[in-house]
Amino acid sequence: MKDTYESPLNSRYASDRMKYIFSPDFKFRTWRRLWIALAESEKELGLNITDEQIAELKAHKDDINYDVAAAREKEVRHDVMSHVYAYGVQCPHAKPIIHLGATSCYVGDNTDVIIMREAMLLIRKELVNLLNVLAKFAIEYKDMPCLAFTHFQPAQPTTVGKRAALWLNEFLMDFQNLEFQLSQLKLLGSKGTTGTQTEQQKQTSCELKALFPAYLNSLGLKDAAGRPLTLDENGNGSFLEAVKAAVMQSAQREIDTHHTAQALSALAVNGSEVEKQPYLTIENSRVTALDWDGFRAVILRMKTAPAFDALDLMSPENEEFGTESVERRHFTAYSQAHDTAGGTLAEPELIAKMNPLTFIGKANTAKHWRIRHGAYDRDTSLAIPFILATTLQNHGFDVDFAYPWGLPHSGDYDLDELFDWIDGLCR
Fold first, then answer.
1. CA–CA distance, 278 with 292 (Å, rounded to integer)
2. With 389 labelled, which of 86, 158, 175, 254 sits at a CA distance of 20 to 30 A?
3. How many C-beta atoms lie closer than 10 Å to residue 319's C-beta?
């Protein structure tokens, strides 16, 4: 059959070994190797994991039951959990400990790193062989004259060996770059999932929570009526009530339209059906109250604190503040003060440039904004987009802001609404 797209990188140019490295077999067998390593490490640290369970995992590390995983993914729409389930079917005794305490990134991202490393090692081997062949060729024909061209025009005499040496130099630079990339590859480790914070991480979270009200109050935010939006030292106040009101508006829109349930069900968080939420008080199809603590208990959190400026500098965001000579730097006073990796703080000017609040009302700011942040987003605090939207509104800009109901950290949804919004501005 030739009615499906084929990449020439695979069908024409790739070796059998390279094809295998990027194959489903290699990917999902690596997932299982990572799950085995996780179980072995957790057993070593004292978790109740038996040698028999680990042996069962090892016995099925290569025979991937793709049919079971595919059937499960149709139900849960989650590749990692589908393969956790499929592995558990083959390993009933080890089922409770598969992926224990891990996140999807543990197998997904680490496998990507392993695949890239294996592919680069293969290319490195081929490059070494090619450099050897070209070097011998260049020496053999170093005295054979030929004509050099520039812009496809005859230029001056040279030798075949000299031309081969130029090719050799290009491949040598590729080899050196490959060596550098291989030296910089790092696995992401296993940081644990929601609810697995250490006592130190809990302490860090409490300290940052205590600092947030002062920061929020320093912004001088106001609601549409001009009333200050603030927080007291316990995190309560008009700002929190405004965020709660926005979440209630999201729930009300879902009750009125069931837009997420009907049009975006594939993206919605399982169990987020608005009428089933115990933290909402709904009377006569109207949302009349929101139990904030109950809502937070359902949403939970995705990341440990600090979520972006990591104390050990291992967050991707730390790389954004790096330089040519320093790969990662801190960008908050708190993380610099509690640094665990001997890091430094980026320049205040650079930190300011990365903060949009620095430029609102000062730079040439767009007049119209449409901001969406899923009501069930666990990656970024609901306060962040609300601060951005309110700051823009306080400076007189037109802002269409909402927390779409039931949606996690995602994008490219409601594109029809987005294009209608743009169309309305352009008329």
1. 11
2. 254
3. 12
Instruction: Kindly write down the DSSP assignment for every residue of 70-118, as one continuous string.
Output: HHHHHHH--HHHHHHHHHHHH-TTTGGGTTTT--HHHHHHHHHHHHHHH
- CA 258 to chain centroid, in Å, comes to 29
Res 345 pLDDT > 70: yes
Q: Which tokens in the block code for residue 74?
A: 């149709």
pLDDT of residue 1: 66
**Residue 330 in contact with residue 309, Cβ under 8 Å?**
yes
| Average pLDDT of the residues of the chain | 92
Size of the chain in residues: 427
Give the list of residues 6+ apart from residue 376 with CB closer than 8 angstroms, or none.
268, 269, 272, 299, 406, 407, 408
Tokens of 302: 């995705």
Only one residue has tokens 């975006």, namely 264
Could you report the per-residue pLDDT of 392-417, keeping only the tens digit for each?
A: 999 999 999 999 999 988 777 788 89
Query: Within 13 A of 413's CA, how many CA atoms are on the CB side?
Result: 24
CB atoms within 10 A of CB 367: 9
Adjacent-strand bridge partners of 151: none
pLDDT of 194 over the 60 cut: no
Nearest to 357 by CA among 330, 328, 333, 385: 385
Pairing of strands 368-372, 286-290: unpaired
Q: How far is CA 371 from the centre of its chain?
A: 20
Q: Taking each helix axis as running N to C, give the angle between helix 238-257 and helix 292-299, from 0 to 180 degrees, rounded to the nearest 10.
A: 70
Contacts of 50 (CB under 8 A, 6+ apart): 43
Query: Tokens for 354?
Result: 């990365």
In angstroms, the CA 66 to CA 87 distance is: 10
Among 26, 216, 8, which residue's Cα sits nearest to residue 118? 26
3-state secondary structure of 151: coil
pLDDT tens-digit series, residues 347-363:
999 999 999 999 998 88
First to last CA, the chain: 49
What predicted TM-score, i.e. pTM, was given to this entire model? 0.62
CA angle in degrees (0–180, nearest 5) for 329-335-338: 115
Q: Is the pLDDT of residue 290 over 70?
A: yes
Is the separation of the CB atoms in 190 and 106 below 8 Å? yes
Are 87 and 32 in contact by the 8 Å Cβ rule? The answer is: yes
Give yes or no for a contact between 287 and 281, defined as CB atoms under 8 angstroms apart.
Answer: yes
**Residue 234: exposed, middle, or buried by beta-carbon count in 10 A (0-12, 13-18, 19+)?**
exposed
**What is d(CA 282, CA 414) in angstroms, rounded to the nearest whole number?**
26
